[in-house]
Amino acid sequence: MEKNTDNDIERQRKxxxxxxxxxxxxxKMTKSDLxxxxxxxxxxxxxxxxxxxxxxxxxxxLQYASALGLSIMPVEQRNNH
Length: 81
Prior knowledge:
Layout (H helix, E strand, L loop, with lengths): L5 H21 L4 H8 L4 H8 L7 H10 L7 H5 L2
């Protein structure tokens, strides 16, 4: 298995942030709406995540996904649905 470089990780974080922003916008949610729904302490955190400037935990991603109405399940489970 190939090891990710810091540049790879940064690029992936930015891509994920762009995806999360796109989903939020498609749901017609403002950053304030998301902050309240996900129980984030500040909308500035959302800026950092969506711009790929923040390192976040799995728990944070789960909060984000839930607030956006997304379901995150393991690939094996998705393939069985």
